[in-house]
Amino acid sequence: MSKTDDYGAVAITRAKELPTRLALAVFLAGVATMLSGPLWPAVWYGCVCVAQAIDWLAFKPIRQAPMATPSRARIWICTLSAMLNTAVYSGIAVYLWFAGGEAGKLFAILQPAGGLLHIALHMHSAWRLFLGAALPHLSYLLFLPLLSGVLSPQDDMLSMTAVTIAGVLYSTHLFVAVRRTVATNAALRQTRDQAEAERRRAEQASAAKSTFLATISHEIRTPMNAVVAAATLLQDDKLTPAQAEHVQMLSHSSEVLLGLLNDVLDLSKIESGKLVLEEVAIDLPAKLEASLHLWRSRAEANGVVMSAEIGDVPARIVTDPLRFQQILSNLLSNAVKFTDAGSIALHAGRLTWPSRLWVEVRDTGVGMTPEVAARIFDRFEQANPGTTRSYGGTGLGLSISRHLAEAMGGSLTVRSEPGVGSVFRLELPMVFGDEGAVDAEPDEETETKGLKQLSVLLAEDHPVNQKIVRLYLEPLGCRVTVAENGQEAVRLAQVQAFDVILMDMQMPILDGIEATRLIRESGANIATPILALTANALLEHRQQWLSVGVETFLTKPLDARGLIEAVVTAIPEGGRRAA
């Protein structure tokens, strides 16, 4: 059997076309009746029905398992059934040729010719079935005129031979077309298989890239956690001006490195379609002012004036707060980077129809030509090859920002002129939030007061990270118990009640996911809030945490305020559980 044979497709097609074959047989019987009388056409139609029933039963096992390879015996049964059917079906041609006059001869030629075309269309994918079904049609088409020339004195042998030659030409063209169709289908099938293999390889490569990014993310974030924490703690000490400048340099460099890492991870999420957006009510004016405040000092250090003009915007909108601020931060960062003098202005307003929020960042920087502006949102694209050397960056920020804007249902565009400046415009659908949906920011004293004598279990294998968390929490009155692996965390959680558990993901002996699952099953901390404290920031890692009931994620490198807010928020109302 040929590798290209598809008996299942033939069996299914024959079943679907059974009503068509029976209806056409009724038509042929009617024509034969008009030309020569009803008796023999009626007998022929009865034979057709019997043959079709046999065919239905012969192909039934193949229809029931179309993807399986039929046995050799079943193939022979189906081939003989197809041969019987075409022999009976085109048998009416013999009757029409000898009993139907000139019109009958015409129908007698057209019937097997049409039958050949029919089986060529739906049986070419199973070569043995096709040849078996074609043989009776060919016999009628080629030998009926010759037989007539021999048996019937009134038929000219030369004319009948010409009819046979025409039949040979028709059959030859048809068989050539069938062979080409089979070859084309085989080539298409091979191309499809190759494409499927390439798709699987691409998926494997994508999975390998995701694993690589996860590993790199973890390995970079762990030492970065120490750098950021050390810089934060140093800022709280009494420093000389020179020392303060060094600490500021350290903080700024770590922020840049973290931004580059986040850009790469965001690009991976966008490419894999795994970007997930939140819908949270935010204080819009406060969010705009916070973004401006973040970059104002850097702009002013360059002698650039940064201002804001907030128009008629709602106090509360529903959006993804992290991604909204990320877009604004990228736009303001870009403006600060390329503006050496003049001003940077943040403008915001609303469109009434359709209801949309717009935010513009206008600068008096170097500007761009229309050609550069047209490709500025492409990945890894910057204004010119020297931009990276002069200003830094990967060329991913604007590309990611546009993808985020579009994922949020909006758009990000630019107008620019060389030597004049640029205007980046963000538009987003405006969904109004409830006035009470955004809680007021608690003051720092209220937050830290809630940490007095708080019992915290920290499951973390890295000594530096252990020290960082303790330096953040213990001065505020927390009692931190450290478990150096997941197994030790489970053991401690079985015998001692804690108020909060901070759980790393990658640990020796037992990882954080499995440790959390075991803690939730039994012991003194079944209902204790567990916070994921991890360098694994990819979506699949968050989904793993969600599968064990952990909804709060603290991504390394940690900042003190974020950790404190998360711990305070996690403490249930009504008191603590630990003694």
UniProtKB/TrEMBL annotation:
GO molecular function: ATP binding; phosphorelay sensor kinase activity
Reactions it catalyzes: ATP + protein L-histidine = ADP + protein N-phospho-L-histidine
Assigned EC number: 2.7.13.3
Coiled coil: 178-208
GO cellular component: membrane
Pfam families (alphabetical): HATPase_c, HisKA, Response_reg
SUPFAM superfamilies (alphabetical): ATPase domain of HSP90 chaperone/DNA topoisomerase II/histidine kinase, CheY-like, Homodimeric domain of signal transducing histidine kinase
Record domain Histidine kinase: where: 215-432
Transmembrane segments: 21-37, 74-98, 129-151, 157-178
Localization in the cell: Membrane
InterPro entries per record: CheY-like_superfamily, HATPase_C_sf, HATPase_dom, His_kinase_dom, HisK_dim/P_dom, HisK_dim/P_sf, Sig_transdc_His_kin-like_C, Sig_transdc_resp-reg_receiver
Residues carrying 4-aspartylphosphate: 504
Entry protein name: histidine kinase
